[in-house]
């Protein structure tokens, strides 16, 4: 029998479902009446009522219609535009959160802007070149080619190479004092380049025959890029080829140098400088110096060539340096080059440009001494003494330090059309037959396995593309654009060219040691090989997709493209990130090249050489 509850001796009736419902209804009506009474007693604000007719005040109803992802939050304005945030059809926003946010639009509030890491400031590295010295035009052109090699190599290592001249030295207040001193011509030339270096505020000063043939993560290069130099330092085994220091230390040293008592002790090459002015680093440097002494000792053929004819000898030295830069790069990747090829049945044409670049990188550069090694890497394996670098086309990215990877990232529309050999797409096919993020899922499968969300895969790929030292181990391109024309600046050396028809290299390597031809199909060990009929169909499909992806006007195809982008958000984000990253890289170098062209007449640029030649022609015409 159920227990009976009482109150003041009277039994309490049990609450049935009907009574409980009636009670809740009564309480609700009472609450509504109370709220209505209280709000009517509060007078309306005169300021709001006065301005309500003049300005638009955000209302909850407006937010409901404008914000789809979060209908209870008022829509937000996108971040303001940053300077230099657009180039070659790409736009971006730089932020330190680039690796913590998988999709850029959550920060940029713009579906077309990619979220990139902040651009690392390049540490300037200076070298001095006296363009006023009396030399033949052929000699100046040869020196200009050598300076171009120097600039290209240091740029690839993350520096900003700057060529100084007498113009910077003449701006220094000490220049007039130096001209009045009676000193040896060699010593005077050394002091002039120091004055130019002091004018620029110090930093890193090197000869243009000092080259970085080491990996980007080398300890010395990392130290030089940091830009923090507590002492005026030189290296024991480099003579005067490398100095680092800040302006105050350089100014103090120049005061010591220009004292009459000290000038008598200084010799050419900054030899005989009293102790205490420099901190001398006794450690063996990792940089390659091609000073006259090194050439005489290790590369006698090139040294003799310079003695016989300076212009031809310098060109021979330039070829030797370029070969050593290339050989040092090849020795870092003992397992060869991997050109990523997901969905191999129908993407042969899509990766053909990347595959061509890989096979050119596997070639041997032309060299006057092909069996030699860089002076700082005496135990290297020269290109002609080894089997050709292996070029493979795996479907997955392996992230190995012994392998250089080249990835071609397609837009989801491009991959859907080419991989499925379809001339057109529709919504039904996208929703029922297409996979989500097929490219990114395949590429990152070895890194992350299966069952991982697209968010995690996007972050992993972004780190592979733009990580701290990622550019030293991989190159990422987009399928809808041609190969950039400045790849030599990316790698730091002139890339040997291979003929498309005969597969011949410009290097003097025996034919039986050359890599495979460009148009030869890759090994079947890398996956299925497309038939010749399918390859013939790929090119027109790829050209058609390029037009659709580049289209900005609203059409039926662009609407379908937007649907596919929403369906494969991770693949779209990867493509957008790589496109913006490469566009910013190209913009950075193009603008730097444009700025330096004003100061580089005859000093390592094509425009500079042309300007120097025009100036020389005018001078010849002005002679009586």
From TrEMBL:
Q: Residues annotated as region Disordered?
A: 66-86, 501-534, 590-624
The domain of life is Eukaryota
- In this chain, composition skew of type Basic and acidic residues spans 513-526, 615-624
What the entry lists under PANTHER family is as follows: YALI0E03476P
Name used for this protein in its record: Uncharacterized protein
Q: Which species expresses this protein natively?
A: Tolypocladium ophioglossoides (strain CBS 100239)
């Amino acid at each position: 029998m159920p227990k009976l509850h009482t109150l003041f001796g009277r039994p309490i009736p049990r609450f049935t479902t009907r009574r409980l419902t009636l009670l809740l209804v009564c309480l609700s009506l009472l609450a509504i009446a109370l709220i209505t009474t209280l709000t009517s007693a509060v007078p309306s604000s005169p300021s709001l009522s006065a301005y309500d007719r003049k300005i638009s005040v955000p209302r909850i109803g407006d937010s409901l219609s404008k914000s789809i992802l979060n209908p209870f939050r008022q829509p937000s304005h996108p971040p303001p535009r940053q300077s230099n945030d657009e180039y070659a059809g790409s736009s971006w926003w730089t932020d330190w959160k680039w690796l913590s946010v998988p999709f850029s639009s959550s920060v940029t509030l713009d579906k077309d802007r990619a979220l990139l890491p902040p651009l690392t400031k390049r540490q300037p590295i200076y070298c001095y070149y006296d363009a006023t010295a009396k030399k033949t035009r052929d000699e100046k052109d040869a020196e200009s080619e050598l300076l171009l090699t120097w600039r290209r190599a240091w740029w690839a290592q993350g520096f900003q190479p700057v060529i100084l001249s007498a113009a910077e030295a003449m701006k220094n207040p000490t220049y007039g004092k130096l001209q009045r001193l009676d000193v040896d011509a060699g010593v005077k030339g050394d002091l002039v380049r120091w004055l130019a270096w002091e004018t620029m505020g110090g930093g890193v000063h090197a000869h243009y025959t000092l080259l970085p043939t080491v990996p980007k993560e080398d300890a010395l290069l990392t130290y030089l890029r940091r830009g923090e130099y507590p002492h005026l330092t030189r290296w024991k085994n480099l003579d005067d080829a490398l100095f680092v220091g800040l302006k105050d230390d350089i100014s103090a040293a120049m005061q010591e140098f220009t004292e009459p008592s000290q000038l008598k002790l200084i010799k050419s090459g900054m030899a005989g400088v009293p102790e205490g002015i420099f901190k001398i680093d006794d450690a063996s440097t990792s940089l390659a110096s091609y000073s006259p002494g090194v050439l005489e000792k290790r590369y006698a053929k090139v040294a003799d060539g310079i003695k016989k004819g300076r212009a031809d000898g310098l060109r021979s030295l330039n070829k030797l340096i370029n070969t050593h830069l290339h050989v040092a790069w090849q020795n870092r990747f003992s397992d060869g080059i991997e050109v990523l090829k997901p969905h191999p049945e129908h993407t042969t044409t899509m990766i053909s440009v990347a595959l061509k670049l890989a096979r050119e990188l596997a070639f041997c550069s032309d060299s006057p001494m092909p069996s030699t090694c860089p002076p700082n890497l005496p135990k290297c394996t020269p290109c002609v003494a080894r089997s050709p670098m292996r070029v493979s086309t795996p479907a997955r990215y392996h992230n190995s330090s012994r392998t250089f990877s080249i990835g071609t990232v397609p837009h989801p529309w491009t991959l859907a059309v080419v991989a499925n050999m379809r001339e057109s797409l529709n919504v039904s096919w996208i929703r029922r037959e297409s996979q989500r993020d097929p490219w990114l899922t395949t590429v990152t499968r070895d890194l992350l396995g299966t069952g991982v969300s697209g968010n995690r895969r996007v972050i992993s790929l972004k780190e592979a593309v733009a990580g701290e030292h990622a550019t030293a181990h991989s190159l990422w391109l987009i399928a809808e654009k041609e190969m950039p024309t400045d790849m030599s600046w990316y790698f730091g050396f002139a890339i040997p060219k291979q003929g498309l028809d005969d597969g011949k290299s410009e290097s003097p390597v025996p034919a039986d040691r050359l890599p495979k031809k460009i148009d030869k199909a890759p090994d079947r060990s890398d996956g299925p090989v497309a038939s010749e009929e399918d390859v013939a169909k790929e090119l027109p499909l790829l050209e058609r997709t390029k037009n659709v992806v580049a289209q900005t006007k609203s059409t039926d195809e662009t609407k379908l493209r937007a649907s596919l982008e929403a369906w494969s958000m991770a693949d779209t984000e990867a493509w957008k990130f790589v496109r913006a990253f490469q566009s910013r890289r190209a913009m950075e170098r193009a603008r730097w090249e444009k700025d330096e062209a004003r100061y580089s007449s005859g000093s390592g640029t094509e425009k500079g050489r042309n300007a120097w030649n025009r100036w020389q022609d005018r001078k010849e015409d002005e002679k009586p």
